[in-house]
Amino acid sequence: MTKRYDAVIIGAGHNGLVCAFYLAQAGLNVRIVERRDVVGGAAVTEEFHPGFRNSVASYTVSLLQPKVIADMRLHDHGYRVIERPISNFLPQEDGGYLKLGGGLERAQAEFRRFSEADAEALPAYYDALEGVAEVLRSLALKSPPNIGEGLRTLVAGASQGWGLSRLSLEAKRDVLDLFTKSARSFLDSWFESEAVKAAFGFDSVVGNYASPDTPGSAYVLLHHVFGEVNGKKGAWGHSVGGMGTITQIMADVCRQCGVEISLESPVDEVLIDGDTVAGVRLASGEEIATKRVIANVGPKLLYDTMLPKSAQPEDFQRRMRGFKAGGGTFRMNVALSELPRFTCLPEPGEHHQSGIIIAPTLDYMDRAYLDAKQHGWSKAPIVEMLIPSTVDDSLAPPGQHVASLFCQQFAPELPDARDWDEEEDAAADTIIDTVEAYAPGFKASILGRQVLSPKGLYRKFGLVGGDIMHGHMSLDQMWSARPVLGHGAYRGPVKGLYMCGAGTHPGGGVTGAPGHNCAREVIADGGSFSRFRAV
């Protein structure tokens, strides 16, 4: 070992970059080691067909913490997000469609085409979700109480529980419903139209290998309303230049702060000296000395492949074996000669700039999950399509387009010992056929495609089971129990080992919150670095 660093971060995804920024601001000498030849983790933009570029995995913006944006001064470096004119567009099986978003009055007018009662219920529904979401937003940049730390646990728990305790009885009932009920059960108590329930229920299965009938799936629905774009809560948007623009800007900011970023530097092992971290060993054989290793990889990847089993307590190992990861997602990018023409709304319009959701009912979503459990993927998959080239002409040649196809309910591991490498093209064809049924001519317009099965997402980005959340967002794997009770405050089972990825609180999405919070805990443990206390 030669040069010693105050901290080494494994993985240059957005949370690793955020964590590095705050540590460098506090005066620490930080090095990031990244397996791939580009920064960004799953938030990258790449050319996948000659002349066509797109966000490869993560594809849309809403959850990135405003505090992180402001502290890193991302706007000063070119960060720009274009809001969707409407949130989502859902073609229906009967030839109709539903548009969601564009403000309360417009959404109510749209709902009246399906149900007057649902239109009248909408304001109260929004208020109920926002009331709970506001409390949970306030917890996003706080470290969960680490169970087992005595008085400190009690104080932190009481402090963070204060917001929930101040809610009205009705709001507390909403909290209970959202954390325990299925999405269907929750939505059935609010709405009667199947199209309306599908419009909201879609969020409950995004990155969640489960049915909308699965208990706890209502929380995943809530997780997706936390965000904001340009100060508008609940809005979603497109990062100009793709998601890679965000992480490239973050990397530039980090380098300006003195952070060293090493690409093509995969980690083989976290080195331990006694009961304390001593550094990391790269696949090249290089050993980097440090007293602080911060893992911006999923818990499964960290504890199954990087940290020696001898350094993990037996009960911890058993708990991690039970940690559930595998989001059931399948990701495609396609180069298009023209915009898709939907049977229900064929001409170009605002729906092409929204999330195009092919999942017309909760029953459709449930069947997709059951198919995946039995056959590996659905005969009629859940598809979300975005066409970012409608608002960003840097991504495709003039008159042509790129589309992201983010698809749900694809088994992390195929049944009958089948291999995704042999099946992914057939699954991709099924996805395209599904879109074709709603937009005839779509298949013929495809000039090229990039296909990433759950296995492909693991191989390219280290997402175990294709899990974009680094682990299920279920009640038993949230807050102080993410990833394991007793290690919920970003600290691993070895002194000097930390976690800053989506497998920690508050979970998945391009938020920057785990990176921010982990940096605060590293500073707190260091004792002598004080500038971060004001952050």
Report on the structure:
With 535 residues, the protein is of the alpha/beta class. The protein is built from 16 helices and 22 strands. The chain has a seven-stranded mixed β-sheet, sandwiched between helices. Strands 12-3-2-16-22 form a five-stranded parallel β-sheet, with helices on one face. A four-stranded mixed β-sheet has the order 1-15-14-13, with no helix packed on it.
Report the major sheet.
7 strands, mixed
Global shape: globular
Strand content: 15-25%
**Can you tell me the CATH topology of the largest domain?**
FAD/NAD(P)-binding domain
Give the structure's gist in a few sentences.
The chain is 35% helix and 19% strand. It is built from 16 helices and 22 strands. Strands 8-7-18-19-20-17-21 form a 7-stranded mixed beta sheet, sandwiched between helices. A 5-stranded parallel beta sheet has the order 12-3-2-16-22, covered by helices on one side. The protein has a 4-stranded mixed beta sheet with strand order 1-15-14-13, with no helix packed on it.
Secondary structure layout plus pairing:
Elements: E1 4-5, E2 7-10, H1 14-25, E3 30-33, E4 45-49, E5 52-55, H2 66-71, E6 81-83, E7 88-91, E8 97-100, H3 104-112, H4 116-140, H5 151-165, H6 169-180, H7 183-188, H8 194-201, H9 217-223, E9 228-229, E10 232-233, E11 237-239, H10 243-256, E12 260-262, E13 267-273, E14 276-282, E15 287-290, E16 293-295, H11 299-306, H12 314-321, E17 329-336, E18 355-358, H13 362-375, E19 377-386, E20 401-410, H14 420-438, E21 446-452, H15 454-461, E22 497-499, H16 513-526
Helix pairs in contact: 1-10, 1-16, 3-4, 4-6, 6-9
